[in-house]
Amino acid sequence: MFFKNSHxxxxxxxIGCGDNTLNCQHKxxxxxxxxxxxxxxxxxxxxxxxxxxxxxxxxxxxNKFHLxxxxxxxxxxxxxxxxxxxxxxxxxxxxxxxxxxxTHPDGFIVISGNSREFHYRSLFCTMNYFEINNPDTxxxxxxxxxxxxxxxxxxxxxxxxxxxxxxxxFVAITEYENYSANIPGEYCxxxxxxxxxxxxxxxxRSYINNRGFENxxxxxxxxxxxxxxxxxxxxxxxxAATQLITVLLGxxxxxxxxxxxxxxxxxxLGAILNTYLQTENISSYRNASxxxxxxxxxxxxxxxx
Length: 305
Description:
Strand order of the largest sheet: 3-2-1-4-5-7-6
CATH class of the largest domain: Alpha Beta
CATH topology of the largest domain: Rossmann fold
Number of strands: 9
Mean pLDDT: 79
Low-confidence stretches: 1-6, 218-223, 226-230, 294-305
Helix content: 25-40%
Number of helices: 9
Number of domains: 2
Strand content: 15-25%
């Protein structure tokens, strides 16, 4: 272990790796003087064995690390996905809370290999972050300042003042995975911050989060010993709301909503649609999102928030 029986911590931490992790060659964080390790699997011999989605991390780790690197973590450990059976609102929220808690107030969180689709990063649609693209894939490196009140140039100045070993790590990760080595000068918003449909999407996200905790609300009728359920299941409603979000963002065509038509027009979900579709239609919202995309073919969507 890097720092066993020691109260001294390095400036960086890698979550999702240990000394014996077989699928990691430690090329990105080889200097043990600069990286502490946290992993769920004790056989990987991390400095700290922990599942960040299950319980708060030790207070002794609070605000310790200037750079928190998420290596090969499933996206649902830090981003709530109601359609993934491995995820729950509690788990993903606790995962991100732990990540933030161990990051120094002037520190940064680096996520490697995050997909550009809303489904995989919905948590970040209202956060400030820098994005570095891989020209050959649809995944990115995300760099989030813990201090979300920083302006872009202030965050970049703080990043530039990180210890040299941490900045060398960043150069290594961009070279190793064929990313651009340049951090954009402005925060990235993709098409997710759209003033026209931001409130609509926020309402749908709130519905999805709350619905995930609730019981089924079928209208159930018992006839001659047989139970009949009317309406749509919780999972069907969550899928319908999620699909609508992807359409509003311009990631899917309106025709993909056809299988969800009945679910979208029922109950609270139907009431949300009635509110936001009184003066606008779905095409109008979707077109507003598409207008924010600079060039979807080469994945350059860097717009100021």
